[in-house]
Structure formats: structure tokens, C-alpha cells
Design goal:
The structure is a homodimer.
Chain A lengths: L17 H8 L3 H9 L6 H14 L5 H8 L4 E7 L8 H16 L3 E7 L5 H10 L5 E4 L7 H9 L3 E4 L10 E4 L1 H14 L5 E5 L5 H16 L9 E3 L4 H12 L7 E4 L2 H13 L9 E6 L2 H5 L5 E4 L2 H16 L8 E4 L2 E3 L11
The first copy, chain A, binds a DNA duplex (16 and 16 nucleotides) through helix 2 and helix 4.
Chain lengths: ~350, ~350
DNA sequence: GTGAAAGCGCTAACAG
DNA sequence: CTGTTAGCGCTTTCAC
């Protein structure tokens, strides 16, 4: 009987390790390792032979082994709540762009994981951070009482936060002044003659929800208009959520003449809701947002918003994190940026007195 | 002399390992490992003690060590050319959303790396794939002669491609029928009465560039209009690139009455360029795109486009990859989806004969 | 039921 | 200059 000795379909070719090269060249694994690492105490002849052999064999160092040994991964972690920010939130994609490109500059990779919010939230953090898969973590969408910050501080892993939290501890962060931002934005609409300005706030566990809301409130109170809680509803930061919230506001009598949303995505939803009711955004009801995502510019009408430099923030928190990982001192541990008012057509015309 | 024995500022608290637990409980590392892994051959009493101790000490398994040992990472890799697709390309963010959420379903993490295109491109692949940091890779923006596909096939690492390549080898992919897509889209404009239809193509190393271009060409030839290469320019897939390309097309005499771009981002750039010249998109010049990114809907005027289900494609390629990693059989190794024509206002009105 | 021993692939301390 | 030894933290035979 003829046995056909099939070349096994190796799912992956046998891996070339330092040992393979050691055997091929007759040197020890140690020397091979040092030669490839470029140590100066290896004879030039030897180094050359080893390097050439390695190339010939297509050697690639096993990063996992190296990580285990060096206790260093050259990886930055980012864990996303499965909702908010949604992956496909343009806000998030800008942020990720900044983070990713900055990480690449320092030859860091990015480990991204997702985790549904809730009681198990820290699970992912324990797995990734506690499991030593990354050298540091970025925290986005900081919350009032943020267990993630507490946890990372506890285990002593470097991290940088986008946003602020109401904790006693000190931690490095970058944030945009949302209180000021909403104050400026609300004043803008007041300046246009609006007196009934609706506000769609964010989920109250998010720190920025309070800050932005209080900026809105302060502007109204300073202007002698006063704060009316009936004009404030909470949205979930999505477009659909913004539309729903807007419907509630539009059901008021008299209805608001302007609606501000805590983020652009909801503001876009507001415009949808207006249209569905036969109202024209920027004409029948003025609309304002917060973030300055690309869509805000292309919306029709283009959306008035407070721009925050999301891409740059991504770069910055990533850079800060890598510095921390390398034990460098941070010149600025707490960065508070000013958002910029961008007036577009959704502001509409000044209301005649 | 009083020596103050400072508690060292441990950058991270000493790590609890199996050994720690072994010492604390008096059992061996082996037994601890098995107890925590839930093996049945551990005495219930023992198991309980070990599990409780582990919890008390806040044990987290070192994932790196586990990966090294098991030769499995539960991680899917994705390497992005530093340009095209830009991180902040909405197309990419949608895709990532699908990939990420699907990966999470199977409890996989995502390793994202960036690499400037060019001769060193394979470097990143060698590092990540050859370095065994991931169990499989996703390839996006397939090219005519795609060295990445060749390489991964060579080393035998599971991978799935979004797009197709012109290689002899067989490989699993998901793609959208771009030839058909541009045929449909071009016919749409021809149906509206257009005879001079400009086309902004994509960089020719990308496979889809040819497919879409040939769909455009076929539609023109079938309709007896004929293909005029002067009406075709190449753009770099960015908004700015689209605007530049459009300027070239608009300099023609007579200028095209419609302009189709190979992707939405460039089409949005076309609209910008039109406006800068005092022309109104959808009125003076019709505009069409490809992708169906969210911005296309919110553009003004809303953009006619061929929608591809990007999010779902992300899910799908990720799911296919995870199946491959698990050695499962793929029911469909080659998936070709049909894009869907979405007619919006940028199409304009039919041209009177 | 439990433990000893081996080894994943790499690097680093230390000899010589 | 080079090799020996040790060990990162984990899992997996294989004995007992």
C-alpha cells in the first residue's frame, strides 16, 4: 500500500526562534540575542553571521516572550464602553485618530477593548491593566465618581484622563472647559435675542454634564433671564436621543426659540426632529451644539457649536501617557483647554425685539 | 542615626502571581493554577480556599505569560497605513465600529498599529504577525498586488481581506461590487440627461480604483456616450484631494455637468470646490459619491451615493477571521455584496433635452 | 487530589 | 568576546 506522505498543511510555519539561529550558527542563544540586539560586546564577524542567518531564516522576535521578560509591552490601552462613546461616534473617531497617530510616533501600539457599562465595568480594566497587557491606559468620558480612576491609581498603572472627575485624588488629565463653553454659547444665543433657550443635557454620571449645564445656567442667570428647569431635558448623547429630547422641548408651550445640545450628535438630532415637525432649523428654532465634529460643518444648515480640538486632545493625552510610562515628569499635569465658539447658520438671525 | 525606612513609591504594587497564592495557601503553583482554571480534579475545599485567597489578594492572571504559554492571544490585529484610510476617515471609523463590536462578542481584543505606506510597510506586519502578537489579521484597502496578502499567506497566519487583489492565490475576503456600483451610479446620471460626466478615480494601486473606474466606463460606453479620458482624474480619497481634482475637471471647456467621485469624502470635496467657484452642487453641477458615510446624508445638499454597509462589513470580516482562527470552516470564503444606490439632492433635476 | 518538573522564547547577571 | 544559569508567570504532562 502506498502511503502518501502529505506535507502537513501547517497552519503556520514552524517558528524561527533564537534557538534555531543558535543551532544554525553554532553560537549560544545568549550571543545570538545580544548580536541581534546590537550589543557592542559581540565580535563583528559573529554579529554579521548571526544577523545574516537571522534574515535568511526570516527570524521575527516573539514579542510576547519579550514582553513577559521585560515587563514592558510598548502598548497603550483604551477601553470603550460599548455604548457612549459609540465606536462610530465621529467624536470618538477623531480622538482615536489623534491617539493612534501619536502612539505611532513613539512606536507604541494600541490595544482596544470594549466593555459594556455597568457593575462589571472594571472587569475589562482588571483584565487589561491588572493582566499587564499594556504599559498604561487612557480613560475617556470621565465620570463624577470614576471607579476606573480609583482602580488604576490603586494598582499604580500610569494613566491619563480625558475629562475630569470629582475625586479627592490627583490624576493627570486633559479637559476642555465645558462650563465656560456653555456659558459662551448660551450668551451667544441670548445675544441674538433668545429668551427661551432649551437645553439637552448629558447623562448625569458624566462630569462634563454638570459643568456644561452649569455654564448654561450661569449665562441665563447673569442675563436676568433665570433658569427654568422645564427647559432642560437629558439626552443620551446620540443623534436619536437628541431628536427625542427635542420633541419633548418642542411640546412645551410656548416652545423654546433656541435649543442647545450638550454635544453635536444630539444637536444634529434636534435638527431632524425640527424638520419632522415642519420647522426649519436656524429659522424657526435656533440650534447649537458642542464638539465641532466634521458633521457639524456639513449639516444643513451648518451647526453653530463650541469646537474642542479633539484630534489634538487625543495626541496630547497619548503623549502625556507615554511620558508617564517612561517615568518622565509632566510639565503640565492638568490641562484645561478653551473651546472655541463657531457661529454657523443654525444660529439663525437675531430676533427682533 | 535614624534611618527612615521609606515605603518605596512602588510604581505598581507588587504583583500577585500564582506563586503568591501558592505560598499563602500552602498548595503548589500547579494546584492553584488548576483550581482557578476550574479543573474538576481539585478538592472542593481546596478550590474554595484558593479561589477566596485569590480574590482577597486581588489576583489577576498575567495575560502575557498565558499568551506565551498557550501560543494564543485572543487578539485580532489591524494595521493602518498612516494615510489612506486616515484614522479620522468616517469610513474607517464605521468599519472599526463593526470590527470592534464583533470582536467583543467573542471576547477578543483589538490590536491596532499604524505604519506609513512605502517599502517598509511589511515591517509592521512582520512585527505584529511574525511576532505572534495576534491570532489573526484584518487587511483593509486591498491593493492590486498586495504584498501583505502574500506575506500572511507565506507565514500561514489567518487573515481576512476587505477588498480584493489581483493575485493567483486564494484568500478569504469580503468586498462590495464596485464595478456594478459605479455602473449603476453612472447610469443614474446618464438617466438624468447628463452626457459629460467627470470622474474622480482613486489611486491606481488600490484594486477598487480599477473596478469602479471600469463600471463608470462601461456605463458610458453602453449608453453610446463613449469614454473620454479627459474627464477622468485621480484623487487621493481625501476631501481636499477631491476638491483639487474637481478644480481640474471644472477647468475643462465645456465643463462636466456631473461629477462622480470614487468615494464620499472626495465628493464632499467636490461640493466645496463648486461652491468656491460660485456653482451650486446639485443645481449647476450634479455630484455623486461612493460609500454612504454619515456625512453624505448631512451634507448640503445631501449627497447621492452608492451605499456600502461598512459597519456590517466590519462585523463580517471580524467574524470570519475569528472563525478561521478557531479552525472552523467558512461557509462563504468570498463574499461580494451589492452596493445600494441612494439618490439624494446632489443628483439635481433631470436635464431637459 | 496534589506536586515536581519542564518549557513557552526571551533577556540579563555573572563568569570566565 | 562568549556561554552558563536563572527566571519572567503561566500551563501541562506525568508521577505519586
Amino acid at each position: 500500500m502506498l502511503v502518501v506522505w502529505d506535507m502537513p498543511k501547517t497552519r503556520r510555519s514552524e517558528h524561527v526562534t533564537l534557538k534555531t539561529i543558535a543551532e544554525a550558527t553554532g553560537y549560544s542563544v545568549t550571543t545570538v540575542s545580544r548580536a541581534l540586539a546590537g550589543y557592542s560586546d559581540v565580535a563583528e564577524r559573529t554579529r554579521k553571521l548571526i544577523v545574516e542567518t537571522a534574515e535568511q531564516l526570516g527570524y521575527q522576535p516573539n514579542i510576547t516572550a519579550r514582553q513577559l521578560r521585560q515587563k514592558r509591552t510598548n502598548t497603550v490601552g483604551l477601553i470603550l464602553p460599548t455604548f457612549s462613546p459609540r465606536f462610530s461616534d465621529p467624536f470618538f473617531s477623531e480622538l482615536l485618530a489623534g491617539i493612534g497617530n501619536q502612539a505611532a510616533l513613539s512606536r507604541y501600539d494600541l490595544l482596544i477593548s470594549t466593555q459594556a457599562p455597568g457593575p462589571d465595568e472594571l472587569e475589562a480594566y482588571r483584565r487589561i491593566a491588572g493582566g499587564q497587557r499594556v504599559d498604561g491606559l487612557l480613560i475617556v468620558r470621565a465620570r463624577e465618581q470614576d471607579p476606573r480612576i480609583k482602580y488604576l491609581q490603586e494598582i499604580g498603572l500610569p494613566f491619563v484622563v480625558f475629562g475630569r472627575s470629582h475625586l479627592d485624588q490627583d490624576y493627570p488629565y486633559v479637559d476642555v472647559n465645558g462650563e465656560l463653553g456653555l456659558h459662551v454659547l448660551t450668551k451667544h444665543f441670548i445675544g441674538l435675542g433668545h429668551r427661551r433657550i432649551g437645553y439637552i443635557s448629558a447623562p448625569p454620571d458624566l462630569t462634563f454634564a454638570h459643568l456644561r449645564l452649569s455654564g448654561y445656567r450661569r449665562a441665563l442667570e447673569e442675563s436676568g433671564i433665570g433658569y427654568d428647569e422645564r427647559l432642560v431635558v437629558i439626552g443620551d448623547l446620540t443623534r436619536r436621543g437628541g431628536a427625542q429630547a427635542a420633541e419633548n422641548l418642542l411640546a412645551l408651550d410656548p416652545r423654546p426659540t433656541a435649543i442647545i445640545a450638550a454635544n453635536d450628535l444630539m444637536a444634529l438630532g434636534v435638527m431632524e426632529a425640527l424638520r419632522r415637525k415642519g420647522l426649519e432649523p436656524g429659522k424657526d428654532v435656533a440650534v447649537g451644539g458642542f464638539d465641532g465634529v466634521p458633521e457639524s460643518e456639513f449639516a444643513s444648515p451648518p451647526l453653530t457649536t463650541m469646537r474642542q480640538p479633539i484630534y489634538e486632545i487625543g495626541q496630547r493625552i497619548c503623549q502625556m501617557l507615554i511620558r508617564l510610562i517612561n517615568g518622565e515628569h509632566l510639565a503640565e499635569r492638568h490641562v484645561l483647554l478653551q473651546p472655541e465658539l463657531i457661529v454657523r447658520q443654525s444660529s439663525g438671525q437675531p430676533i427682533p425685539i
